[in-house]
Design a protein that fits this description.
The complex is a heterodimer of chains A (444) and B (145). Chain A has 444 residues and is an alpha/beta fold. Chain A is built from ten helices and 22 strands. In chain A, the strands form five sheets. In chain A, strands 4-3-5-6-7-8-9-15-14 form a nine-stranded mixed sheet, sandwiched between helices. In chain A, helix 4 crosses helix 5 and helix 9 crosses helix 10. Chain B has two domains: 67 residues, 2-Layer Sandwich (VC0802-like); 75 residues, ACT domain (Alpha-Beta Plaits). In chain B, strands 1, 2, 3, 4, 5, 6 and 7 form a seven-stranded antiparallel sheet that branches. The radius of gyration of chain B is 16 Å and the shape is globular. The chains are: A alpha/beta (444), B alpha+beta (145).
């Protein structure tokens, strides 16, 4: 007999979402129980973790309360590279049913593993993510996250199936086919990176297809930081409600945190992933509400437990109760990663700041790219911006004025003078996955 | 009475001009005249074509950013003083010309002047009041085609 797992009505409560509403005391009890078990598991099975605890004269018994987590050592990305490929696994290969890996744009990729139970948890947190994004059984979802070694495609796929939605496993790329399927299949929700969806909206416009007239109502976007301005642009251009989701392969993939219809921060599924915010310089924990680096501990992971993993993502925990009723704490949308930071002539710059300047001047976000070069030993930054039909004029003066306004807006925000080059539409390469906004040609 | 002019943004480097012109050629769209405004880094290609709406669709579908602007075309005798006389009309009417380009016709001793104004309707009224012939798309095509 089929388990009665879901409500069909829009906005209906999905039973998988029940843990989202646990009272705080019950949630903390679950967290502590799971934390102690996962620390014990990592200690017994992962040599690196045991070694680090021994160096500190610690044993798993030191964890008597949730606050004691601060005594445990951090795990960083380099640990995954140093133990490549399988060094942090806590399960024998006979229990591992899936491997994923990062694209490895710099150096060796990192490999992550899942037991059958891990896949079940992943499906559960992704179903909760999608329920949080107002999806339900009966939705036709087009999953344009890449399938393959990247966790996005399969993670979202399993979650959508667990929710009872109809999944189209189209993967990334072939934009014209994506648009045809959205239209012909009556797609109601689409998953992709925000930059790829921006490209898709642009292409649909060129083909004379108005996405606002189609049944598409929800976009679920993740895998890269995107601004609120970009959200407004996407929502208006496609006639959808856009949700931000968060995750990373090292922890599980997508499914770590999700926006709800309040669109004010992302609920962390903290019965499985315990969040902390630390000062990235000192490593000291910061109280809720203060901005710092997000650190996550997998509370139920079997094949590859991550204890206090430093995400490099900068955010703050929102402790206040959310209007949607979920008791899960939220993190602010991630606007920047400490990895994305560019240092030019001693000034710290984030691509999101350039984005903010472009949005302020143009009202919409054009495709852009930041090129870093060096002339006579001095760092130079040039921003290339594509000319959109909205700002194109037949008059040179109008275009020159716009260029100057953008250059000044960037200068005001960054505090340094940058070059600004207007380029033809489509001359900047479109990514099918995560956008590459920065090209560093400085050669060191 | 106004003509639709297409404008395209081009980067100032070799080979950029040929792509849009090839696209139009492949669709059998005749370019009646053009004008290229350039700066050190970019250019704006302005085109008067047979079927501007279809040309814009073709270019849009190929991913070009296209701007449509209304311009005013006037027919004048191809002889000394032809341009000056028309400009005198605009001076009288207090109208500022944003830019102008001109071409002559093969078979007739006529020249066509293409003007861009902020207020094209006022320019047309002034031209007609002074007895000048303002061209619509049909007439232009008959002359050029």
């Amino acid at each position: 007999m089929l388990k009665e797992l879901w409500n069909d009505a829009a906005g209906g409560f999905h039973p998988a979402s029940a843990p989202d509403f646990l009272p705080e005391a019950a949630l903390k009890e679950v967290q502590l129980r799971r934390l102690r078990a996962v620390v014990q598991r990592a200690y017994d099975n992962v040599a690196l973790f045991q070694e680090r605890l021994r160096e500190r004269d610690l044993t798993p018994a030191a964890i008597e309360s949730l606050q004691d987590i601060r005594h445990l050592p951090f795990t960083v990305k380099a640990d995954l590279r140093d133990t490549y490929p399988f060094g942090l696994f806590a399960s024998p290969m006979s229990e591992v049913v899936r491997l994923h890996a990062s694209s490895g744009t710099t150096g060796k990729p990192i490999v992550v593993a899942y037991t059958r139970e891990d896949i079940e948890v992943w499906s559960e947190v992704m179903a909760r993510t999608l329920a949080c994004c107002s999806l339900h059984r009966g939705d036709i979802v087009q999953n344009a996250f890449g399938y393959g070694l990247f966790t996005g495609g399969l993670g979202a796929h399993y979650g959508a199936e667990a929710l009872g939605a109809t999944v189209i496993p189209i993967s990334g790329g072939n934009t014209e086919r994506q648009i045809m399927v959205i239209r012909d299949f009556g797609v109601s929700a689409l998953f992709s990176t925000p930059s790829y969806f921006t490209h898709l909206v642009e292409r649909a416009g060129e083909l004379g297809i108005d996405l606002r007239e189609l049944p598409l109502r929800v976009g679920v976007f993740g895998a890269e930081p995107w601004s609120d301005g970009m959200r407004s642009h996407i929502e208006a251009a496609a006639g959808i409600s856009a949700f931000d989701i968060y995750g990373l392969s090292e922890i599980i993939g997508p499914g770590v945190a999700s926006e709800c219809p309040e669109h004010h921060g992302l609920h962390v599924f903290e019965d499985h992933f315990y969040p902390e915010i630390i000062d990235p310089e000192t490593g000291e924990p910061l109280p809720d509400g203060e901005e710092g680096e997000l650190v996550l501990t997998t509370l139920s992971k079997q094949a590859m437990p991550m204890i206090r993993y430093r995400t490099r993502d900068i955010t703050a925990i929102i402790h206040e109760r959310c209007g949607c009723g979920r008791s899960l704490r939220r993190i602010q949308r991630i606007g920047r990663r400490s990895d994305d930071m560019i240092i030019i002539r001693g000034v710290n710059i984030f691509p999101s700041q350039v984005e903010a300047a472009l949005l302020a001047v143009e009202g919409t976000l054009p495709h852009y790219r930041i090129i870093l070069g060096r002339e006579q030993g001095l760092d130079q930054m040039t921003v290339e911006v594509e000319v959109t039909p909205e700002v194109l004029s037949d008059q040179v003066r109008v275009i020159e004025d716009m260029r100057e306004r953008i250059a000044q807006a960037i200068e005001r925000i960054l505090g340094i003078r940058v070059g600004l080059r207007l380029v033809e539409p489509h001359s900047i390469e479109r990514s099918q996955g995560k956008a590459k906004r920065v090209v560093d040609q400085r050669g060191d | 009475m106004k003509l639709n002019q297409l404008s395209l943004f081009l980067e100032n480097r070799p080979g950029r001009l040929i792509e849009p012109t090839r696209l139009l050629a492949a669709e059998g769209i005749n370019v009646m005249t053009l004008c290229l405004a350039d700066t050190a880094e970019f250019g704006i290609l302005r085109l008067i074509v047979q079927n501007p709406a279809r040309a814009a669709d073709v270019l849009n579908a190929a991913g070009w950013a296209v701007n449509l602007t209304e311009v005013v075309a006037v027919e004048v005798p191809d002889q000394p003083g032809g341009l000056a006389e028309v400009l005198g009309v605009f001076e009288q009417a207090g109208l500022n010309v944003e830019y102008v380009y001109a071409f002559t016709l093969r078979r007739e001793d006529r020249a066509i002047l293409v003007f861009r104004f902020q207020e094209p309707d006022q320019a047309i009224t002034a031209l007609q009041a002074s007895g000048h012939r303002v061209l619509d798309a049909e007439r232009l095509e008959a002359l050029v085609g």
